[in-house]
Amino acid sequence: MCSKTTRFDGKVIIVTGSSSGIGAAAAIMFAERGGSVAIHGRRQDKLDEVAAKIESVSGRKPVSVTGDITCEKDRETLVNETLKAFGRIDVLVNNAGTCEPSGWQTDIKLLQPVLDLHVIAPLDLSQRCMPELLKNKGNIVMISSIGGLMAPRGYLHYSIAKGGMQTMMRTLAAEVAKLGVRVNAVNPGYIETDILRDEELKKRIAANPNFTATFNPNGIAGKPDDVAEAICFLSSDAARMITGSTNTVDGGKTAFLQF
Ligand SMILES: NC(=O)c1ccc[n+]([C@@H]2O[C@H](COP(=O)([O-])OP(=O)(O)OC[C@H]3O[C@@H](n4cnc5c(N)ncnc54)[C@H](O)[C@@H]3O)[C@@H](O)[C@H]2O)c1
Ligand SMILES: *[C@@H]1O[C@H](CO)[C@@H](O)[C@H](O)[C@H]1NC(C)=O
Ligand SMILES: *[C@@H]1O[C@H](CO)[C@@H](O)[C@H](O)[C@H]1NC(C)=O
């Protein structure tokens, strides 16, 4: 693919949950490729580190907003600050997320916050950005999960929420396709980030330090940059024909039969 079309000069990209992991890697990659980025997360110190990295690779300061993405006011501030600094929005990456174990016995009250984070927040942000995306023929990337496509035993609420995100991606894509806006999903498998630190996974990683590589059929322990590459491609003009699509970055986990 022509590298020129995967550059982001003059484009403005919002990445939620970009203080670490996949979001941070994507924000840095967008900046390296010419984009102006708005980063967002809950921890100021970690956001500052990412902001410094972005400035060092691109020579440009990102917009940096601290807040909780499940809080409506914080979402409004993120969009406002981005528009105030850069005057436009071309790409929204709905990436912020957490992953806690749950199952059929888990208190039903614990589902709502998971839906707030993975469904309500991304939909509300998509709505808020849509006027700009329509104007600029922009696009949205939803960071879902292979757990939104197939059953991750032990993660019931997460799976319900990511499945909702997946359906939202397709239906939004269908609504705005004719208007020139694209909406796609990236579905990571196990990628080595802070999210893999819940108690169940800690146990598995303690038993096998090479757990992620062994889990993935291709034997590779996926890194945040592996997912960031997919995000950058999908949100670039090189992907103009791609919308409503599911894009696994999982070393083959969901495609292969297990033998
Ligand atoms: N790492 C994996 O194996 C994996 C697999 C499938 C899907 N994902 C998805 O990728 C996305 C990024 O996760 P990651 O692996 O980089 O983990 P991470 O923990 O490094 O990053 C998640 C980011 O989201 C932010 N965040 C979480 N809740 C938030 C809130 N309420 N308000 C604002 N920010 C919030 C965190 O602060 C952090 O910056 C998530 O949506 C996750 O579900 C990750
Ligand atoms: C965002 O901007 C709008 C329009 O300028 C303004 O009415 C609103 O109060 C702002 N919200 C926040 C949270 O700053
Ligand atoms: C980790 O697992 C992969 C895939 O099974 C293997 O290729 C690699 O050699 C392993 N690494 C270590 C340190 O055991």
Describe this protein's structure:
The chain has 259 residues and is α/β, with parallel strands linked by helices. The protein has a single domain, classed as NAD(P)-binding Rossmann-like Domain (Rossmann fold). The protein is 44% helix and 13% strand. It contains 8 helices and 7 strands, in the order E-H-E-H-E-H-E-H-E-H-E-H-H-H-E. Strands 3-2-1-4-5-6-7 form a 7-stranded parallel β-sheet, with helices on both faces. Strand 4, helix 4 and strand 5 (139-143) form a beta-alpha-beta unit. Helix 1 runs parallel beside helix 2, helix 3 runs parallel beside helix 4 (111-136) and helix 4 (111-136) packs parallel to helix 5 (156-176). The chain is globular. It starts with 11 loop residues before the first strand and ends in a 10-residue tail after the last strand. It binds nicotinamide-adenine-dinucleotide (NAD) and 2-acetamido-2-deoxy-beta-D-glucopyranose (NAG) (2 copies). One 2-acetamido-2-deoxy-beta-D-glucopyranose binds at residues 210, 213-214, 219. Residues 210, 213-214, 219 line the site of one 2-acetamido-2-deoxy-beta-D-glucopyranose.
